[in-house]
Amino acid sequence: MKYFGFLIVFIISLVLAVGLSVNLGQVPPLGYLMDPYHGFWQNAYSEDELAKETLTLEGLRAPVTVVYDNNLIPHVFAENKADLMMAQGYVTAKHRLWQMEFQTRAAAGRISEIVGSAALDFDRMQRRKGLGYGAEMGLQYIKEKEPATLELITAYTKGVNQYIDQLGLSRLPVEYKILDYRPEQWTPYKTVLLLKYMADMLVGDKDIEFTNLRHVLGESMINRLFPDIPASNDPVIEADHVWDFAPLPVHKPDSAVYPDFSLLIDPVPAPEPGTGSNNWAVAGKKTKSGHPILANDPHLGLNLPSLWYAMQLSTPEYTVKGATLPGALGVISGFNEQVAWGVTNATRDVRDWYAITFKDHSRLEYQYNDQWIQSSVRVEEIAVKGDVTYLDTVIYTHYGPVVYDESFHPNSQKMNFALKWTAHEGSNEQQTFLDLNVARNHDDYLAALDHYTAPAQNFAFASSQGDIAMKVQGKFPLKWPEQGKYLMDGNNPAFEWSGYIPFGHNPSTLNPERGFVSSANQYSVGESYPYYIFDNSFEDYRNRRINSRLGEMENITLEDMKALQFDDFDLHASEALPLMLEKLKQDTSRKFDAKEQAFLVVLEKWDYYADPDVKGPVAFGLWWEAFKGSVWNWLDQGDRPVVYPDNFMTTSLMREVPNDSIFDIPGTTGQTETVVHHLQTSFEQASLEYQAMKADQGEDLVWASYKNTTIRHLVPNFTAFSREGIFTGGGRSIVNATSERHGASWRMLVELGPEIKAQGIYPGGQSGNPGSRFYDNLLETWAEGDYIDIGLRSKQDAANVLFTTTLNPID
């Protein structure tokens, strides 16, 4: 009866998904979906119900054993690395085929093939950014420079395709049935493309926004409001670190004068606010066990199926476990018998835009160094379901592709923009993770990172030998100060990148005296680092909270690290709210009505912890957003995008110069506004909003319900396959960075003693099938800040076994 009830719920959810979430023009005949032998009924199962004891794979050299634990985590035991990769491809496809194929279709700009013209603009943007081109360059690089990587990718590919080839219609993932298409063969190109997709997910730039601000404010005010080195700087690499290299010289050419562009529109899409991560490692001298502990929790969009797929991979030479990325080889964030590692985004401006002047309408020649040089033409053929193929002509310069032109998001000046991006260049990030999987010490870790280009990451490291380390790794352009902060003149060679910072000069540290390393997307280094670094989105709060707690803590345990990963303390609120309340009350003639007084009480009683069942963060969030908008809305330029100064800068100005002219509202006569004016008007606005919400929700108006953390299916309209209203705390710039749609996509803790202790969790489940009990079985555990044991296991370990499958070679 329990299974029957689950089946009914699943069927109702699926009918809702089809009936409410998909354009009816895209839905296959209902008879097909309702077919009891092939339709969605056949997807209402959990994997252990259909488990087979033995299977055969062509190309295996020896049998492979796959042991699934009670959470459907596979532990793959192979006799050699090629068999291991083939088995990983097969097993991953078995549980996440639709996801891995859909994500690579999105990266390649091929969604129109399955949903029609509604996705055409998205597909054109993906292709015009050059993701496919970058993957082609990456695959070519691997073929020519590192063919051993290609051999393993090919083995993985064979495993995926053998699963696809034996997949019957009845077991086809339900998304294929709803959208009425079939899986296609996997290729090595798709694996490389997937890693480029991650580069796109984790990079952003604000060149057009800063160009607009420069036009409105001038450089002096921009430098005041947006300093290159944040005033809050508590960097990734300890601030007093001594650099042991002689830097390459780089100087701003006298001819490098930024053009005075008019206000511009149409910035390229950037990562949504909330994307970030935390990682740290503490030395044995600070832990209770005397052994290093490593922690990692990458913050990304919260989706179902989950971005990550947990797995153990074993040969007689090594065993590695952690989070894999469906479609890529090996473990991305994890540990083996000797080392552990974890990654966070190393926020850095590695994408620049150049204004291009074409000779004529054909765009076959463009101006460079006052001469006409030849461009190249790439015709993108975009198949559109239910329509003719769309041919999109994209011009490539020596900088990179021209993303915007007269046919795609033209601005009023019909300006052309060429995008230069490190992700367009040949590289082999896949080898980094393959090498980390088998690393034994710090030297192996550094050698693995030498393959890594993009997206730039902070790699935390710990070893059973007692070492802890951090390296900021990526291929970083060698720039003069301010280069790339604004839109540049593509005709002027002075704006070319001078080269790249040598990998050996990238910021790194080994066994610092303070006893820990950490990163949380903050500025990388102290002022003594000799190379120019810029980005608009460095973190100001999570990093300082983590470093403060790690500096205070001694006798650290895994339980202490759990508490820190799930820490809900809002450092921003603790620094801003007392000031806001103090200055609000400076006008003693100001009287609060009863509702405002009640709102004030909520704020005054809050202890700055953004736990799910409290009201304080709701009230503060409303007031802060109203206040920040009141202070900075004079910067708005209509549809011409700009950025506001960040929360730390806004708070600092409120504290240090409350009567500064920056708070005066342009256009008002007869008065000069100060910060008190903005606090009062925004308080009134926020109080009204709060009371209106409270009247609607009553005592249910708590942080979790207001924030409404949602884990959405990769097809956003498939709401029946999504989960809303997750009861959990945290928020942006809080260590537990769980916001509306972003959060810890994977939490991992590893203690590297003689017996490795490891725990992990992510918001979802191992299965990509919404009909499976393993689709989201880990979600509640994640929301409550708990973990599951992810320690290494042997093939002979009989505990916690769900089922075992043997993959045999074909005789």
From TrEMBL:
GO terms, biological process: antibiotic biosynthetic process
Cofactor binding note: Binds 1 Ca(2+) ion per dimer.
Keywords, ordered alphabetically: Calcium, Hydrolase, Metal-binding, Zymogen
Residues bound to Ca(2+): D349, D352
Keyword Hydrolase recorded: yes
GO molecular function: hydrolase activity, acting on carbon-nitrogen (but not peptide) bonds, in linear amides; metal ion binding
Cofactors named for this entry: Ca(2+)
Family: Belongs to the peptidase S45 family.
Name used for this protein in its record: Penicillin acylase family protein
Species for this entry: Echinicola soli
